[in-house]
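S.,

As promised, the calcium ion run. Input:
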Amino acid sequence: LQAFFSPRLLAGEQVLITAGPTFEAIDPVRGITNRSSGKMGFALARAAREAGAQVTLVAGPVALATPRGVQRLDVESAQDMLGAVEQCVPHASVFIATAAVADWRPAAVAAHKIKKDGTGQLPQLGFIENPDILATVAASRRAQEGALYCVGFAAESENLLEHARAKRQRKGVPLLVGNIGPATFGQDDNALLLVDEAGVQELPRASKHALARQLVAELARRLGAARA
Ligand code: CTP
Ligand code: CA
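Predicted complex:
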């Protein structure tokens, strides 16, 4: 029924989306992660599917149902997420990175549960920087040749516009979508700032589903312009 009412703005597009947090193991029972419910990415996957796209959703650990008609690949760590994304990039025409990827992972994963030794001594954790999935995809030949349109997201706690502009440049993507957290994390609504080469556009506070539909329409407009 939904398909009947939705204009097929993304018909013929292969949309690849990352969503949710990543989980980086410390030992078999512990790890570090980021705050992300995955709701924005899942809402986008649903909206893109309803707009006629083929959608693949690479999801970190989240408690959300897979939107109808969407192919979902579950992953845990940033490295797993990059691996899954790289498998899909050759077929994708749009890449949307909504995932809150952990920036660092423990340098070594303990094979067994780290035990308190009774003396109050603390475990010493070293960290390694995780690969930047969005920057890697944006630098790929497909993206550089214009066959893959890349969209980044940025959740900031302050100076949203300034950070979003800088991040768009740094990641090398045509469109970066900003939002202010942590108040919106896990919530059903949000407000977005779209930053592209031409300037800035605000999508005022609405449900994540409504925003996802607006974002799909904006994306279709930019894809049309990019391919004209
Ligand atoms: N991203 C990614 N892989 C990473 C880190 C970020 O794909 N290792 C993507 C996110 O999915 C998002 C965008 O890059 O689309 C911006 O993420 P963000 O965490 O805001 O940017 P960072 O470059 O990690 O900067 P910082 O966390 O220091 O603000
Ligand atoms: Ca980050």
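The chain has a mean pLDDT of 94. Residues 2-110+125-227 form a domain with the Rossmann fold fold (CATH 3.40.50.10300).

- D.
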